[in-house]
Amino acid sequence: MEALISIAIGLLTACGVFLMLRARTFPLILGLTLLSYAVNLFLFASGRLRMDAPPLIRDGASYTDPLPQALVLTAIVIGFGMTAYLVMLALRALAESGDDSVDAREKT
Amino acid sequence: MHTESSLTAIILLALCASPLPLLLQHHGRGYAALAAALVMSACLVLLAPLVPAVMDGTTLLANTGWLPDWGLMLSFRLDGLGLMFSLLILGIGLLVTLYAYYYLDVHDRLGRFYTLLLLFMASMLGVVLSENLLLLVVFWELTSLASFLLISYKRDSYESRLSGRIALAVTGGGGLALFAGILLLGHIAGSYELSVVLATGEQIRAHALYAPMLILVLLGVFTKSAQFPFHFWLPQAMAAPTPVSAYLHSATMVKAGVFLLARLYPALAGSELWFWLVSGTGAITLVYAAYLAFYRYDFKGLLAYSTISHLGLITLLFGLDTPLSVVAAVFHIINHAIFKASLFMAAGIVDHECGTRDMRRVNGLFKFMPITATLAIVAAGSMAGVPLLNGFLSKEMFFAETVGHPVFDEMSWLLPTFATLAGILAVAYSSRFIHDVFFNGDPVNLPRKPHEPPRWMRAPVEVLVAMCLLVGIFPQWSIAPILHAAAGAVLQQPLPEFHLAVWHGFNAPFMMSLVALAGGIALYAIRHRLYALYDRLPSIHASIVFERGYEKMVVAARSLAAWMDNGSLQRYLALFIAFVLALGGWAWWTASAAALPVVTQPADAAAIVAVLMLALAASVVVARHRQRLTAIVFTSVIGLIVALIFVRFSAPDLALTQLAVEVVTIVLLLLALYYLPPTSPAEDGMPRITRDALLAVAAGTGLGAVTYAMLTSPFDTISGFYLAQSLPGGGGSNVVNVILVDFRGFDTLGEITVLAMVGLAAHALLDQLVLKAPLRDGDGRTWVSERHPLFLQMLMRPLLPLALMVSVYIFLRGHNLPGGGFVAGLVTGVALILQYLASGIGFASARLPQRLPLFLAAGLACAGGIGAASWAFGFPFLTTTHGHIALPLIGDIELASAMIFDLGVYLVVVSVVLMVLAELGKLSVHSEEKI
Lengths: 108, 931
Known about the structure:
Strand content of chain B: under 5%
Largest sheet of chain A: none
Number of helices of chain A: 3
Oligomer: heterodimer
Radius of gyration of chain A: 18 Å
Largest interface: A-B, 83 and 111 residues
Radius of gyration of chain B: 41 Å
Distance between the termini of chain B: 84 Å
């Protein structure tokens, strides 16, 4: 199971990095989204993979590590904020330069 | 006044009062000069009461903390060496102040000059009075900066600026080396305070880092004191106005280097490395610069090279490393300062009166300015080492030290021969200065007719020449006390027996002096043949070599910058990723393997299928990223699988959040896609794709490997506290939520603030933006005529209250069961967005609050306010409380004050989602209007 999750994280990272290096804004946003998935999973995995042990206090239950979950929860929301910001930036850049290239210069 | 405070006061006064001349110059140039003179006099007055104690051999210390944690103290020390230098700096400073008033152009208002001069003086005083070595380095750098400004004082002349730049590059570069050396020294000695460092000489010399430290410190010394091969900046600096040269190149700037040799002598000297490095450099500089001085046509250039030569002499004396050679070195520092300052000033007078410094034209001036000529001749005689003048005394001591130096037993003749050769050259160039300038026929084609300078312009020269005579004739009475104090402070041990006298009998040093005098005059007599020979030799100008090297470095730096910084963000990102990979790889290979690998869990079929789907979806996103709609769809597949992974591994909160975020993000991307060009052109060539693929695969492999290594290493967590305290301390059984709103509430407050900024950025970036909406989609189809299908509208409207109810439920239960402000906010956001999508922006925005930023502010106020409210009860920020409330019908529910915090989170999330989407929506309204 551990190897499987590691492979998934590695795969998402590779795809994310490749897309982030593209020249257009849209693949870049997609790449960043994939990389966010990978990083979130990585952070989450740092609390180890435990099944049927949600961190909800009950009698006689055992719990997985809640701290990485709290970290990842805010990371997901911040990741959304970042994606939203990038989308708006991409639209703004499109309006300023007439082009969706990452390196677009201002229209002269 | 208290001694400690007056010592600190001297430096502070000099530093703080340095702008005075600039402030006073509009009253007239005299005021500027007067202000400078007064500041220097005030420093002398402050210094005076401290003199008696120092002459008795006491070291005065003043200590104020500056950055004590870093070992940087504002601590000063005054001992014999510091006192001697302070007197030179202040005394010659005063004379230069007077001299410059007459020398500089009457149209020059002098404010800038005197301010720079004071600044320079203050930093020199700082160097010689620092007790803390780091403080010394700070002042050392200040002298480099101030001298740069002084040397390039004539800022409209290219040569001046070039000279200043070369001086700054050389001395500033040396300063960096010195800084590194001092850091090592402090590390070795365990303290940056000189008192400690000077007492740990043995330990320093035995340390493994002694050699690199010594070389770095000496680099600083040699660059500052213009030792070979760093000597070239000094002749170049002759482009400075003569008062600057007289000050910087006699008593101050260039002496800072040899001062440091003296200062650190007890800590650094006494090793073979010291002997060879210091005396070798000094000896080469001594002879080489004297040789070059003889061939100058420019008499100021001659003085410059002679300065380098004399600095070489002082360096050599420190390098010889016997107690008496150190005394001779200190003595020569004083003597050289006195005669060289007077010579520079006399040269400046000649330059000022003749308008040129070329000795082929400036001849026979004795007739025109007999008094100045006499003064200059006496000073030049001192430079040559003529008896009855001060230069003779220290030169005799130098000769005496070369005879029978312990290191050269077999080759004992070598050092005296070398010294005599240097003496011959010194006599030759001094003769040339005297004879060419003041005798040797008549002036040739001078721009103006020379005559004696104004009375007070000559006065400083008279004072200095009088001192040459005084020290030269009555050394025991005039200079011995301060020399004893200074040399004692350098050696930090009882001084050897020595006797200052004009006449020591017919001994070896005296014979060497005679040979030097005779040889020098003979050399001068055959000068024409030598010049002809010299002209045939290839000439190497170190400053030209430096300048070429400098220009090459500038070109190289530019092309490197152009290569790295070519404006391509992809390039930066690729470099950044490569750098991170290199760092990570390095850490990976150098790390030690985990002690005991942990037993792993077997993978089951469901997990394998999920990860296969994930791999498939990710591959499709990469392969089809130019078909944007497809890419979005498959991205959402990945998001769903990630949410499933969260569910599987006991993270229901994460799964809920991931799902909600997924929906909002997809809607957002779809909206953006409407405006963005529908496809990406295929523009990357194979090399680019290969490079990016390699980086991507390396990054993926790296993170995968790190994850696997982490998952198979033993697990230890700090979360026990949170699990134990969640219910009793936070009043909630959903530990994740309690961490977010209670234990780590401050972090969450920061996070929702970031989110709020995104909302505001939406307004800043998109307000009034007009984008052309495409009339057809990517495949060339027109849009559906019915913009808002009735079916969808009808389906969505009843969904809204249901969705809102769900979100309230999720919010309320959040403290105890999966849910909470984040998820509830996202669910509300999704519900409202669906209305936008189904019924159009006009419908939705007419029914939603217009002033979303107010809600944003309310959310932040809720979260921050409940945190601040705990102050009112005397608790720290964001302390929570909780209790039970019995409601009719529903029963007993637990309410925590953290819920209000969570409400703030909820409000922020909802308003940010709506603000972003509303701005995007408005975009289409603007664009449609435009069409």
